């Protein structure tokens, strides 16, 4: 014996090695469960809604259209302080959306926005304006936030949705493994996108068209 500690002793003895081994096995099992569970849940939603599911390595994604609305769901990663974290990202591309920003009125979001209080638009609905921050062209976006549209927008934003430009986006921490939860998040985003679409001008009457000829 040369008196040097063995590898087992280096890791704290047999008992500690056994505990570390069990934790490693559980960690690998949990990671695999999340990967498979998330893929199964997303593909199930894809089948229900007629969207195309694809899995690339450990990432899953949905692409397709519901009516004339484009939908995307992705599992993605982000790096924070050297730690890799998983997310489930949702995007909705609906035609005729107002160009602007609609987000939850948290202190953090106010700081990120770097806008003065006076620059946020007001709908005149005190409860809505307290919960939701709106920016953009008042003439374009405020008519979309009428009394009929506001409940759908509020419910979506409370679930994490925001309008960024003309795209509705939501991000959830982790890889969601519940098809019901994924469907619920999508339903709320779709409802908000439908509620904020512009109204097409009514067709001209035959009499009006005749008057132009």
Mean pLDDT figure: 80
Poorly predicted segments: 22-31, 200-213
Order of helices and strands: HHEEEEEHHEHHEEHH
Structural class: alpha+beta
The count of DSSP E runs of length 2 or more, i.e. the number of strands, is: 8
Tally of DSSP helical segments: 8
N-C termini distance:
108 Å
Account of the 3D structure:
This protein is an alpha+beta fold. 42% of the residues lie in helices and 27% in strands. It has helices at 7-10, 14-49, 107-113, 126-131, 138-141, 150-158, 179-195, 206-212, and strands at 52-56, 59-66, 69-80, 83-93, 100-104, 132-136, 162-165, 167-173. α2 (14-49) crosses α7 (179-195). Residues 22-31 and 200-213 have low confidence and may be disordered.
List the topology elements:
Layout: H1 7-10, H2 14-49, E1 52-56, E2 59-66, E3 69-80, E4 83-93, E5 100-104, H3 107-113, H4 126-131, E6 132-136, H5 138-141, H6 150-158, E7 162-165, E8 167-173, H7 179-195, H8 206-212
List keywords for this structure.
213 residues, alpha+beta, 8-stranded antiparallel β-sheet, 8 helices, globular, disordered C terminus
In short:
By secondary structure, the protein is α+β, with helices and mostly antiparallel strands. The chain has helices at residues 7-10, 14-49, 107-113, 126-131, 138-141, 150-158, 179-195, 206-212; strands at residues 52-56, 59-66, 69-80, 83-93, 100-104, 132-136, 162-165, 167-173. Strand 7 and strand 8 (167-173) form a beta hairpin.
């Amino acid at each position: 014996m040369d008196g040097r500690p063995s590898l087992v002793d280096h890791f704290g003895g047999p008992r500690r090695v056994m505990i570390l081994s069990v934790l490693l096995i559980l960690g690998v099992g949990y990671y695999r469960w999340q990967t498979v569970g998330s893929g199964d849940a997303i593909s199930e939603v894809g089948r229900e809604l007629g969207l195309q599911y694809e899995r690339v390595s450990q990432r899953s994604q949905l692409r397709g259209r519901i009516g004339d609305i484009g939908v995307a769901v992705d599992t993605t990663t982000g790096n924070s302080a050297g730690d890799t974290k998983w997310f489930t990202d949702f995007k909705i591309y609906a035609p005729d959306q107002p160009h602007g920003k609609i987000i939850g009125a948290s202190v953090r979001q106010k700081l990120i926005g770097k806008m003065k209080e006076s620059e946020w638009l007001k709908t005149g609905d005190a409860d809505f304006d307290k919960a939701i921050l709106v920016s953009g062209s008042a003439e374009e976006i405020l008519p979309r936030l009428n009394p009929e549209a506001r409940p759908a927008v509020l419910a979506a934003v409370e679930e994490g949705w925001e309008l960024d430009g003309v795209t509705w986006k939501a991000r959830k921490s982790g890889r969601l493994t519940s098809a019901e939860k994924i469907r619920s998040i999508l339903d709320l985003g779709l409802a908000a996108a439908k509620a904020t679409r512009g109204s097409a001008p009514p067709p001209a009457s035959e009499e009006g068209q005749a008057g132009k000829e």
